[in-house]
Write a structure and sequence with these properties.
single chain, mainly alpha, Methane Monooxygenase Hydroxylase, Chain G, domain 1, two-stranded parallel ribbon, two-stranded antiparallel sheet
């Protein structure tokens, strides 16, 4: 993709406004928190105190809208506490330009590194720096700075208290995550009717697993509907794929295929009913017609072989889903105490240790997070120094814009730059026009600011250009409480927004962190994880009595994480104005298809794992050993752009074929599909390397 095309795409993305589901009651509750804090501060204090308190409640409210599995009150308190500390330190350093610049450099560097912990931490930290840049411009003393910081923290306390006192859909994000996972499996079942090898995106299952992590206290208070279903959905998915696959399951045509289509449709109906009930917190209503299909026919079984075993397994799992929706299953220990089964979430100390480890992992020069932190630090400091030399005032606005625009990847940075400028332009024009026409007093300005906050909370997920307009109008109304002239606000902010956005875009172009050159590394990681998953499954056939309970499960989770990392990198690379010299785009797509098929084959075999008392399979053990031996060199070959050699795996497969004779089992048929996927991967990468080395015709280059 050329620079001109990339800029057009990012600009189009930045200007896009999406229709999405809003949360009006949550927005009203957050706006009431801001109104309560501003009103009390105006009544008992001064306009400057009201501005500080409003920013604390405002930032705490934004934190509660982030996609996080943490309790909302804790998010509000964490955001307000961090903002209070940064505001107080900013006040202390603001008296001298040098000390404030040094503090800004350190603070923005830490903010950039916080993206290593996760997107929520990065967004909240960015918000803290942005608000701190505004609040420190309000004149005060050291004791006044302490009072401002306490008021900022009070805003978070108020938001947290409102969440506790007026809950809106408690456990809503966990319900949505689990319902999305069940709905994804239901949709997968329906697609398998017409496309027996349909792909499946495991992201909803990964999100549901993340949402299931909680503390012991949360586990005791968790609704009954949020326990048990996720693992059942995880187990149903490979059974569905095995049932529909024409090689392992039922034939592609005939009465058995018709029966499989009926079972898939009925399973989708049942899972959809359960997902709907979980999302709304209502009893599960399962259609009797669907349950009638998911039973053994009165005239006897219509499926044979592996397809029949998969169908019986499906009957059992769907019955477990229905039973779980009827009555709570209580697990009791030997002492008679209730046992709450849950994925443990680390406490405060464990979370801090995990965050430090994440930051330490990214503390290398090639890390996109570290490069983002360096860019953010350099742009914020240079923007602040440039703004102080201009006769516009409001020196904080340019670094504020840069902080809000810059992101670790190219597409988000440039799309947000366009959206920020146009949104700010609209917001300050509307806000300044209202102030010029109405000349509102302190209380009316506060009311208009709260109205802007309500609009932003309602439209938070529609697009960055909309939220930028609402935030800009909010800042205009809020600073007018302190008596700031509207015409200065409009002119200065438009100019400094343009300056900050340009600095952010130039910084990424000068000091980039392209994802395109990392595609082969991501592909190699995915191959290694898929290979570990496949060897774990074949080892279970080779030594069924020695299989560890989590052996296959842990390998599956690693494979999913590697696939998600590849897909994220490939999506980012697709929007970048650079081209990988060792991996063309068609080759990347072909390699992705091959690795997806490799993971699918291992998942098919997972649905037919033998019992512990089953006889061991020497051929499966030999195949697993050959695959394990060939994997390290293949992973290095992907990274180093060398041809892949699967000769040991082919030789092991041939020996297995000779031993099995005319009766190939499920494991052998899956091994054949796995080798086909490995060959497709080798062909895709070898062809891609040849294409990338072939000189391109200049006449076919896309014109800038």
């Amino acid at each position: 993709m050329t620079w001109s095309h990339a800029l057009k795409e990012t600009a189009r993305t930045g200007l896009a406004i999406e229709r999405t589901r809003t949360e009006p009651m949550v927005a009203v509750r957050g706006a009431c928190g801001v109104a309560l804090v501003v009103g009390v501060a105006l009544w008992l204090g001064s306009p400057t105190l009201a501005v500080s308190a409003a920013f604390g409640a405002f930032s705490a409210g934004i934190a509660t809208f982030q996609r996080s599995w943490r309790p909302r009150p804790w998010l509000a308190l964490a955001a307000a506490s961090g903002l209070a500390v940064s505001t107080f330190l900013g006040y202390l350093a603001a008296a001298h330009t040098l000390t404030f610049v040094l503090m800004l450099a350190v603070w923005t560097l830490m903010t950039g590194m916080s993206w290593a912990v996760g997107p929520v931490s990065g967004l909240v930290s960015t918000q803290m720096v942005a608000v701190m840049l505004i609040t420190v411009t309000l004149p005060t003393s050291v004791m006044g700075a302490l009072g401002h910081a306490l008021l900022v923290g009070l805003g978070g306390v108020v938001q947290a208290a409102l969440i506790v006192l007026f809950p809106v859909r408690p456990w809503g994000v966990q319900r949505d995550a689990l319902a999305d996972a069940l709905a994804a499996v239901a949709d997968y079942a329906r697609r398998l009717r017409d496309e027996p090898v349909a792909p499946f995106d495991p992201t909803p299952l990964m999100d549901a697993r993340s949402a299931a992590a909680m503390t012991p206290r949360q586990a005791r208070r968790r609704p009954r509907q949020l326990s048990g279903y996720r693992l059942l959905a995880e187990r149903i998915r490979p059974v569905l794929a095995s049932l529909a696959d024409p090689v392992v399951g039922a034939p592609a045509e005939g009465p058995e295929r018709d029966r499989v289509r009926e079972l898939l449709a009925a399973t989708g109906t049942v899972l959809d009913a359960v997902a709907h009930a979980i999302r709304r917190g209502t009893p599960v209503r399962v259609p009797s017609e669907a349950m009638a299909v998911l039973r053994m026919p009165e005239d006897g079984p219509k499926l044979t072989g592996a397809a029949r075993r998969a169908a019986l397994r499906l009957f059992s799992l769907v019955a477990d889903v229905v039973e779980a929706s009827d009555e709570p299953v209580e697990e009791v220990s030997a002492e008679g105490r209730m046992v709450h089964r849950f994925r443990p979430r680390p406490g405060l100390g464990g979370t801090a240790a995990m965050a430090l480890r994440a930051v330490r992992r990214e503390a290398r020069w090639s890390s996109p997070v570290l490069r983002h932190a360096v860019r953010l630090c350099a742009v914020s400091v240079s923007g602040y120094l440039l703004s102080t030399t201009l006769p516009l005032g409001h020196a904080y606005w340019a670094p504020l814009t840069s902080t809000m625009v810059l992101r670790p990847d190219f597409a988000q940075t440039y799309s947000r730059g366009v959206a920020r400028f146009l949104g700010t332009l609209a917001g300050v024009l509307v806000g300044g026009g209202v102030v010029a026409l109405v000349h509102p007093g302190s209380y009316l300005s506060a009311g208009l600011a709260v109205l802007s906050v309500l609009s932003m909370y309602l439209l938070l997920r529609t697009g960055f250009i909309v939220t930028s307009a609402c935030v800009s109008a909010y800042v205009v109304f809020l600073l007018s409480i302190a008596g700031e002239a509207w015409h200065q606000t409009v002119q200065a902010r438009v100019a400094l927004t343009l300056l900050g956005g340009v600095l952010a875009m130039v910084a990424y172009a000068v000091f980039p962190a392209w994802e395109t050159p990392r595609l082969r590394d991501r592909l190699a990681d995915w191959l290694a994880a898929n290979g570990a998953f496949a060897t774990a499954v074949f080892d279970a056939y080779a030594h069924p009595a020695e299989r560890r309970p989590r052996q296959v499960r842990d390998a599956l989770l690693d494979a999913r994480a590697a696939r998600a990392a590849w897909e994220q990198s490939e999506t980012q690379a697709h929007r970048e104005p650079v081209r990988h010299r060792g991996l063309s785009r068609p080759a990347a797509r072909a390699a992705q298809t091959a690795l997806s098929m490799m993971g699918r084959v291992a998942m098919l075999l997972e649905a037919h794992l033998p019992e512990r008392d089953a006889p061991p399979s020497e051929e499966a053990g030999d195949f697993a050993a050959a695959l394990r031996q060939a994997l390290p060199d293949a992973v290095r070959a992907v990274r180093e752009r060398r041809p892949l050699d699967w000769s040991p795996v082919h030789q092991s497969l041939e020996r297995w074929r000779r031993e099995s004779g005319d009766r190939p089992g499920v494991a052998l048929r899956d091994a054949e599909q796995l080798v086909d996927a490995l060959d497709d991967l080798a062909e895709a990468l070898n062809k891609g390397a040849r294409q990338s080395r072939t000189p391109r015709d200049p006449s076919q280059e896309e014109s800038p």
